[in-house]
Amino acid sequence: MSLLEMIKEPTDLKKLTQNEFELLAREIRQELIQNVSKTGGHLAPNLGVVELTLALHSVFDFSKDKIIWDVGHQCYTHKMLTGRREQMSTLRQYGGLSGFPKRSESPYDAFDTGHSSTSISAALGMALSRDLKGEDHHVVAVIGDGAMTGGMAFEAMNHAGHLKTDLIVVLNDNEMSIAGPVGGLASYLSRLRTDPMYSWGKEEIEGLLNRLPHVGRRVLKIIDRIKDSFKYLVVPGMLFEELGFTYLGPIDGHNIGQLQEVFKHALNTKGPVLVHAVTTKGKGYRPAELEPAKFHGVGPFDPKTGELPPKEGPPTFTSVFGAELVRQGEKNKEIVAITAAMPDGTGLTPFAKRFPKRFYDVGIAEPHALTLAAGLAATGLKPVVAMYSTFLQRSVDQIIHDIALMDLPVVLAIDRAGLVGEDGETHQGVFDLSFLRCVPGMVIMVPKDEQELRHMLVTALQYDGPIAFRYPRGAGVGVPLTGTARPVPLGKGEVLRQGKDVTILALGPLVYEALTAAEELADKGIEAAVINPRFVKPLDEDLILSWADKTGHLITVEEHSLASGFGSAVLELLASSGRENVKVQRLGIGDEFIQHGKPKILREHLGLTSSGIKKAVQNMLKNRRSFTRQKLNIKEIYGG
Ligand SMILES: Cc1ncc(C[n+]2csc(CCOP(=O)(O)OP(=O)(O)O)c2C)c(N)n1
After folding, report:
1. Residues lining ligand 1, CB < 6 A?
2. Is residue 203 in a domain?
3. Of 46-60, 200-214, 545-559, 580-594, where does mean pLDDT reach its minimum?
4. 426 and 509 in one domain?
5. Could you check whether the bond before residue 250 is cis, i.e. omega within 30 degrees of 0?
6. How far apart are CA 636 and CA 146, in angstroms?
């Protein structure tokens, strides 16, 4: 029986020796690699926190203490230790375990995460709640050096330091975000890690100075006089100390004994404490240690070699966008590109390589990315912000207040719009149309395929105001990518198929599902027109109204929330033009969060497929057809 099999609950860890802990860490790594090689998932971040997680669970009691995992992508060992090991093969699969902490899954998951830099705020909230209710437990936030670049982390630390409540923040410093780390904080942490001066504890330094009577006292006097500048030189973690935290570290995040010692010290320290643990992303699995960015989040792979299956099929929307942006960048020097810590994910790496001076990775700082773009646009440049739909949610005020209010020409390239699949609820990109539609002056486009994405990028670059286009995760439709990209006429949709019975308005690549549905419906004697609306704002009002009049029946289809999405815009148009008699059915996402699972499965459940569209059309026309048949029957009866 393996050691891991003997750990039924976290309290079982308390009996282990140091050697057993090391053995257990090895077993966990083996299982993580095997599992994730089948399910896909965030391998490298999880391999990096095995010892950290073991140490936390052996020192704290998270049946009453609280732990909040920032981003939450590193929680696999935590799940294995808290009764979910048997289900790890279902990780990220439809109906299986989530790849992130979920309160609905286990009482050990204190807070749902997925987006970064929230842990310290949430932990502080829990600590304050504990204090108000007179409870007695510890609250721990585990946050990576990447997530620490998000503004909220600093807002929370600033507040925690002010309140002085008991709170433990574990900084998991692996020198990596998804890509390389960004900015002053990264250099600061690097100095803490590498300069021997910095590995001294603050108390040790003060003790040393006191032990040197003359020099020491004199130095302490100097400290008093030039306090700040000197402290920055000699006291480790001064940035955190100045924010009101007791800094402990840096410590080896793979040494369980050392981690346990420091955690015990932390839980006996009053006020907020920051434990700085240095770890290696991908630890213990060579392919992941060598290429931590590739193994940050991976699909299934060969565990022996670390090789991923060859990419098949058409190029992704992301890569087509990235390549076209480079082409446009050659022609127009005013184009600058911005990412928030996702240069690869958003397809901006080729642009960054070709035009390093016109590319900005701001770290995990989405709101800053948008206002930075506003500044660039206000002074004559053409910023393109490429961001996943789900993370753009963070920047709504910046879009309204810093961009749209001044009508600034910022281009929003919204990647991973729609269902993203295995990352689940926290990552589905299904709200962007709702929060952009209401912004005055905002233009919103949705390309039906990767070729139209090229055209829309050019449209956006030529437009003098805020403009967005949204496109899905993964492979394109497979259309030829030929010719020069040309702007599409503003606010104009296109009719892809004529029909007299019903009009299907399908957004983005769903229009191809609508075309398939229309073909199958034709076999059943239903003539469906299919329209690619292209614009959610401004809507092609004339086109939509004329087809509403022609067919009297509209079906809207969108991979987006129905509340205030594209279908809602069509309903608003019909209502304001007084067409009460047009029948409308909207297909999309209802008032619910969509869980993890393969996009194909999720789409089937939501009816966002050709057969779903076909069914909706048939249902819609059923009444009309039975009415017609009834009339026919009457005719037949009376021989008319
Ligand atoms: C608001 C937000 N933006 C972007 C992301 C995408 N993302 C997931 S993990 C990650 C890097 C996190 O780095 P770090 O906190 O150092 O953790 P590590 O993966 O290195 O363990 C990023 C950018 C996110 N989850 N949330």
Report:
1. 45, 48, 71, 73-74, 115-116, 144-147, 172, 174, 176-178, 281, 296, 340-342, 364, 366, 391, 394
2. no
3. 200-214
4. no
5. yes
6. 75
**Which pLDDT value is given to residue 145?**
95
| pLDDT for the residue numbered 216 | 53
Q: Is 281 a catalytic residue?
A: yes
Given 437, 470, 503, which residue is the final one in a domain? 470
Which run of H or of E encompasses 360? strand 359-361
Flag whether 346 is in a domain. yes
CATH number where 610 lies: 3.40.50.920
Residue 591 shares a structural domain with residue 498: yes
Domain that holds residue 503: 494-628
By CB atoms closer than 10 A (0-12, 13-18, 19+), residue 521 is buried
Task: Calculate how far, in angstroms, residue 116's C-alpha sits from the geometric centre of ligand 1.
Answer: 6
Atom of ligand 1 nearest to the CA of 176: 20
* Rg of the chain taking only CA atoms, in angstroms: 28
425 Cβ contact partners less than 8 Å away, ≥ 6 residues apart = 98, 112, 114, 593, 594, 595, 596
Query: Between the CA atoms of 368, 369, 370 and 373, what dihedral angle is there, to the nearest 10 degrees?
Result: 120
Mean pLDDT of the chain: 92
Q: State whether 40 and 165 are in the same domain.
A: yes
Domain count, the chain: 3
CATH (domain of 353): 3.40.50.970
Q: Are residues 418 and 274 in the same domain?
A: no
Output DSSP code: residue 514. H
Residue 497 known to be catalytic: no
- Separation of CA 177 and ligand 1 centre (Å): 6
Q: What is the pTM of this model?
A: 0.92
Residues 455 and 561 placed together within one structural domain of the fold: no
Active site residue 394: yes
Pairing of strands 411-415, 382-388: parallel
For residues 115 and 28, membership in a common domain is answered with yes
Residue with tokens 């982390």: 153
Q: Would residue 437 count as lying in a domain?
A: yes
Report which ligand 1 atom has the smallest distance to the Cα of 48.
21
- pLDDT at residue 184, rounded to an integer: 79
DSSP code at position 214 = H
Same domain, 391 and 353: yes
The single-letter code of the amino acid at 331 is K
Question: Residue 256 gets which letter from DSSP?
Answer: H
pLDDT tens-digit map of 471-522 = 999 999 999 999 999 999 999 999 999 999 999 999 999 999 999 999 999 9
Ligand 1 centre and the CA of 29: distance in Å? Answer: 21
b/e string for 460-496 if b means 16 or more Cβ within 10 A? bbebebbbbbbbbbbbbbeeebeeebeebeebebbeb
Indicate if 464 and 500 belong to the same structural domain: no
DSSP readout, 137-173?
--EEEEEETTGGGSHHHHHHHHHHHHHT--EEEEEEE
DSSP 115: S
Report the nearest atom of ligand 1 relative to the CA of 45. 21
- Whether residue 457 lies inside any domain: the answer is yes
